[in-house]
């Protein structure tokens, strides 16, 4: 198996969370399998998540934590994001990472366009995995919401900057998991971590 450079971002803003446990299970299994792994935890990051009105001309300087996120993505060839789904999206602080750090000239190029006229992605050559923790049942998420969060992350955020293909793992019933579920989720995260997929 080819050894990979894996960046894991635990996108839960709390110091202790099920999302964090799942991210750690993935990261540890990947390390044990011989992959190089870097981990960042959203709860450890100090930065202003508000993009404000600076525009692309007058951007706020990136805090060290945001610069580190970019450096870790640039270093990696596989990016893993573990996130809860809150109100149909990611936590506000995690959205702030995307708003502040995913900027033109570093993650996409507005001067060059894709064949369909979108800015060219600058972080191609990296695969990705998103692990979503939610209460929404998979069937309802798919039929009622049309997998909206997955569509956004694939097409408008991670895929937009070049991270593809992007695979998803969705664990639901996270607030009140049935007996044995957490153990199965951690095992599943370890399995895909060891395979670096």
From TrEMBL:
GO cellular component annotations of the record: cytosol
One Pfam family, short name: Flavodoxin_2
Keyword Oxidoreductase: yes
Domain Flavodoxin-like fold residues, every copy: 4-183
GO MF: NAD(P)H dehydrogenase (quinone) activity
Keywords: Oxidoreductase
Family: Belongs to the NAD(P)H dehydrogenase (quinone) family.
PANTHER family from the UniProt entry: NAD P H OXIDOREDUCTASE-RELATED, NAD(P)H DEHYDROGENASE [QUINONE] 1 ISOFORM 1
Name the UniProt record assigns to this protein: Putative NADPH-quinone reductase
Organism of this sequence: Shimia isoporae
């Amino acid at each position: 198996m080819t050894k990979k450079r894996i960046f894991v971002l635990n996108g839960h803003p709390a110091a202790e969370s099920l999302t964090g446990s799942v991210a750690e299970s993935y990261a540890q299994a990947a390390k044990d399998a011989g992959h190089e792994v870097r981990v960042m935890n959203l709860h450890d990051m100090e930065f202003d998540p508000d993009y404000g009105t600076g525009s692309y001309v007058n951007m706020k300087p990136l805090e060290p934590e945001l610069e580190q996120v970019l450096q870790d993505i640039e270093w990696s060839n596989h990016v893993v994001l573990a996130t809860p789904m809150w109100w149909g999206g990611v936590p506000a602080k995690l959205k702030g990472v995307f708003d502040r750090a995913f900027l033109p000239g570093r993650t996409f190029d507005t001067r060059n366009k894709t064949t369909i006229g979108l800015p060219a992605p600058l972080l191609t050559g990296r695969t990705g995995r998103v692990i979503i923790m939610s209460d929404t049942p998979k069937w309802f998420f798919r039929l009622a919401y049309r997998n909206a969060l997955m569509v956004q992350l694939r097409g408008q955020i991670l895929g937009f900057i070049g991270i593809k293909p992007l695979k998803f793992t969705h664990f639901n019933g996270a607030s009140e998991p049935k007996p044995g579920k957490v153990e199965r989720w951690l095992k599943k995260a370890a399995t895909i971590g060891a395979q670096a997929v």
